[in-house]
C-alpha cells in the first residue's frame, strides 16, 4: 500500500474491515459513519487491486489477499502506534493504540475484568486484544512484535523474554457437590482411579504436568477421561457428572461461586504455580509498554497484597 494519503487511520480502517468483515460493524468499531467506511473500502480495494471482502450468502468473507494482509497490518499498526507514543512519551489519556496480550482463560478470568476497569478510567481510547496461548510459537510472536506481553505459568520461557513473578497460585481439585466418587477417605490410589478432566491449553501440558509429574515420581498415573484445551467449560461438565478436575485455586474459587461445586485438596503435595509476566526485551524501555506492565502489576497487587510486582 503506497501513496500520499496512506496513514495510520487507513491501517486502522483496514484492520477493522478485516476483523469484522462487515462495513457497518467496522465503522462502529472506529466511530466512523457507514458511508465514510464504504468510501475507505473502495479506496483500499483500488490500492490493493483486490476486492478484499466478497459476499458469500448472507455474509462477507476475506479474499486470499486480505487473509495474507491481516497479520501484517496488525504489526504495522503496532509499529506506527509505538512510534507515535514513544516519540513524545506515552500519554494514556490520548493514546488510541491497541495492546495485545496472550492469556489462557484462567488468567483472563482473574486479570482482565480489573485491568479493563483501569483502562476505562486511565486510558479510555486504548484497546485490549486478548489472544489464546501458542506456546510453540511464543518466541516468534514476541519477536515479530505481534503481542505485547503475557501473564502465564510458563516454567521454560524463551531466552529473549524478560520475566517478572506476579503471584503464586496452587492446584486444587474441583467436583460437583455430592459427588459420591470423592466421599470418604481419598487415598492416592482412589484419587488416581477417579475420572479426571485434564486441561491442555493449545496442546501445552504445563498445567496438567504439575499433577502428572508429581504422580510419576511415585510411579502413579491418573485416569484421564477427558482432555480439554481450556478451563471455561469444565464447571458445566463437572456439575453434570462424577468427573473431577485439578486446576489453579483462584479460578476454582470463581467457579464455586457460580456453580454447585466444591474444592478439595489433592491427596499429595504439589508444587506452587508461579505466575509470570513476560515481555520481549525490545519493548523493555518503551514508555507505552512500561505503562502497560505497571497496570498489570497494580492489578496483581490489589488482588494479592504482599505478593510480587515490587
TrEMBL record:
Keywords: DNA-binding, Nodulation, Transcription, Transcription regulation. It holds the Pfam family LysR_substrate. The keyword Oxidoreductase does not apply. CDD domains: PBP2_Nitroaromatics_like. The keyword Membrane does not apply. SUPFAM superfamilies: Periplasmic binding protein-like II (SSF53850), Winged helix' DNA-binding domain (SSF46785). Gene3D superfamilies: Periplasmic binding protein-like II (3.40.190.10), Winged helix-like DNA-binding domain superfamily/Winged helix DNA-binding domain (1.10.10.10). InterPro entries: LysR-type_TF (IPR050389), LysR_HTH_N (IPR000847), LysR_subst-bd (IPR005119), WH-like_DNA-bd_sf (IPR036388), WH_DNA-bd_sf (IPR036390), YidZ_PBP2 (IPR037402). GO terms for molecular function: DNA binding; DNA-binding transcription factor activity. Residues 6-63 form the HTH lysR-type domain. Belongs to the LysR transcriptional regulatory family. This is LysR family transcriptional regulator. It comes from Stappia indica.
Amino acid at each position: 500500500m503506497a501513496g500520499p494519503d496512506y496513514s495510520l487511520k487507513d491501517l486502522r480502517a483496514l484492520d477493522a474491515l478485516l476483523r469484522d468483515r462487515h462495513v457497518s460493524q467496522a465503522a462502529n468499531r472506529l466511530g466512523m459513519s457507514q458511508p465514510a467506511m464504504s468510501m475507505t473500502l473502495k479506496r483500499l480495494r483500488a490500492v490493493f487491486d483486490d476486492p478484499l471482502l466478497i459476499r458469500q450468502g448472507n455474509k462477507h468473507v476475506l479474499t486470499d489477499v486480505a487473509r495474507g494482509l491481516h497479520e501484517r497490518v496488525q504489526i504495522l499498526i503496532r509499529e506506527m502506534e509505538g512510534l507515535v507514543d514513544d516519540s513524545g512519551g506515552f500519554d494514556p489519556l490520548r493514546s488510541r493504540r491497541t495492546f495485545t496480550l496472550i492469556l489462557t482463560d484462567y488468567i483472563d478470568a482473574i486479570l482482565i475484568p480489573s485491568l479493563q476497569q483501569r483502562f476505562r478510567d486511565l486510558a479510555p481510547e486504548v484497546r485490549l486484544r486478548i489472544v489464546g496461548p501458542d506456546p510453540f510459537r511464543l518466541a516468534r510472536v514476541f519477536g515479530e512484535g505481534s503481542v505485547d506481553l503475557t501473564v502465564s505459568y510458563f516454567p521454560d520461557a524463551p531466552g529473549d523474554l524478560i520475566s517478572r513473578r506476579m503471584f503464586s497460585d496452587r492446584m486444587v481439585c474441583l467436583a460437583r457437590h455430592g459427588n459420591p466418587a470423592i466421599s470418604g477417605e481419598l487415598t492416592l490410589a482412589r484419587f488416581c482411579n477417579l475420572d479426571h478432566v485434564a486441561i491442555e491449553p493449545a496442546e501445552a501440558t504445563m498445567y496438567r504436568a504439575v499433577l502428572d509429574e508429581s504422580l510419576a515420581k511415585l510411579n502413579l498415573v491418573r485416569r484421564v477421561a477427558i482432555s480439554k484445551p481450556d478451563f471455561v467449560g469444565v464447571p458445566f461438565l463437572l456439575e453434570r457428572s462424577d468427573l473431577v478436575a485439578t486446576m489453579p485455586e483462584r479460578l476454582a474459587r470463581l467457579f464455586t461461586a457460580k456453580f454447585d461445586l466444591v474444592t478439595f485438596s489433592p491427596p499429595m503435595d504439589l508444587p506452587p504455580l508461579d505466575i509470570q509476566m513476560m515481555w520481549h526485551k525490545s519493548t523493555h524501555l518503551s514508555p507505552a509498554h512500561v505503562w502497560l506492565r505497571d497496570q498489570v502489576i497494580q492489578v496483581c497487587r490489589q488482588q494479592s497484597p504482599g505478593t510480587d510486582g515490587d
